User: Fold this.
Amino acid sequence: MNPARRRAIFERLRAGNADPATELVHRTPYELLVAVVLSAQATDKSVNKATQRLFAQANTPAAIARLGVDGLIPYISSIGLFRNKAKNVVALSEILVRDHGGQVPASRAALEALPGVGRKTANVVLNTAFGQPTIAVDTHIFRVANRTGLAPGKNVEEVERRLEKFVPDEFKRGAHHWLILHGRYTCVARSPKCPQCVIRDLCEYRPKTPGAAPPRPLKD
Assistant:
């Protein structure tokens, strides 16, 4: 895919959603961090339902640390892998209190040193809480990047590297959200909604869902 086509894709996604944001409900960087850790292999909807109750009672590292694993579990038991997630959330909360003054660090290295926080989670927090132009490649972004030809790769690391290389700087912060939302609601895993897709003529996916307009050439 050439640079002009990539730019056109993001221009259209931006036109439809000028200020994209995560669907995880949060008010602070810490609430976001907890929500993202809980969202692994879970839907944002299920996480929001759990955190609505949890954050009303405990929404700081000190409060969650005091709650402890046994106290946290009842709030998140509806989410998959809740026992392990409870251990990680309590452990990372204790570290934030002990080593970071109860604040979420704006450093990738410091974030990835926290229990339950990998590169994807760190990227989400850096982007959403601190405005850094990171792109967290989840299953939706991986699918969209490969299917459209935007940044194809064999694994999430390769896709992330290519997105960082190919996405124009002005779109990098929003790209994370635009691509997730596009994959979640339009470019879905089964039967993508090509007829309603705003980038269908720019997309390099050949077996488009019937009814979609055929791709038209884009001038370089």
Observations:
- The longest helix spans residues 82-99.
- The chain has ten helices and no strands.
